[in-house]
Structures are given as C-alpha cells and as structure tokens.
Amino acid sequence: MSHRLYTPNSVDNTMDPRGLIDGACSNNGNLDAWVGIVDGSQTSQCTEICAAIAAVRLAHQFFLNGEFWGAGHVKGIILMTNSAYLVSAMTDWVYKWKRNGWKTSIRKPVVNMEDFIELDVLVQYLEQNCVPVRFWCIDREHNTFVDALVKAATGL
C-alpha cells in the first residue's frame, strides 16, 4: 500500500486539514469544453487534478507561512475526492510512470502528464519537509457539497 493512500485506520486520524476537492467540466472531452481553472484539454479528469493542485498549492503556502508547526497546527493534509482516477494516479501509478519515463504500461505518454508532474512535485516538496499528503477516495454522496459548489461556479 502506498504511503500516500489514506484510509480511515491507516494513519493518525487527527491529521488536518481534510480538504474536499472536486472538478467539473461542461461538454466533457469536446473541443468547446469549458473549465474555470485550466486551459488546453478540457476533461473532468483534468479538473479533478487541477483541484488537487490548487489545494496542495494552498497547503504549500501554509507551509511557507509557518502554519504547519506548533501546538494546534496541522500535521499534514488529506485530500478527499470521489475521483478514483486521481487517487490511484497519486498513490500507485505515479511511481510506475516515473520509472517508465512518464509512459503507461503500454508505453504511451501519460494523459495529463504535465498536471501530474506539477502535483507530484508539490506533494514531494511537502513530504520532504515532514508534511504528509494523503489521498482518500470517498463515495460521491460524501462529496455532494463540494460538487454543488463546483457546478455552481462553472454554471453546470
């Protein structure tokens, strides 16, 4: 099991914060697809990755501001998402992709490679500075509040 995979009994349950993330994309996969965060290929998977990047960037800023240390401060972050794709990518596949020169098991380039590289670099920075980052795949019904916020923000 990956050290980045969070299950409720796998690590200290006092780890904070637990960030719910989600992405949404109108006209998913089409050339006229629209997303509020990214340019280029517009897919729901891409928006999930970009939501994770935004959350980890925020955690990175907290770290730089010294907010991860001391009494009452967070010990790490848990990204809660209903995207099994994102969780599998960041807890399992990313290690294989890096070993394979960012190629899949069938030697094709990793889809959303640039975004996964950015996310992995941000996560590695925090982990190297003793701020664990965990990814937790939750059921869609536990992510309805964030899903509603994302859909409202994108007009879906």
From TrEMBL:
Record Pfam families: RNase_H (PF00075)
A Gene Ontology BP annotation from the UniProt entry: DNA replication, removal of RNA primer
Keyword terms, alphabetized: Endonuclease, Hydrolase, Metal-binding, Nuclease
Presence of the UniProt keyword Nuclease in the record: yes
Enzymatic class: hydrolase
Enzyme Commission number(s) from the entry: 3.1.26.4
Molecular-function GO term, any one: RNA-DNA hybrid ribonuclease activity
InterPro entries: RNase_H, RNaseH-like_sf, RNaseH_domain, RNaseH_sf
The family this protein is said to belong to: Belongs to the RNase H family.
Protein name in UniProt: ribonuclease H
Organism of provenance: Macrolepiota fuliginosa MF-IS2
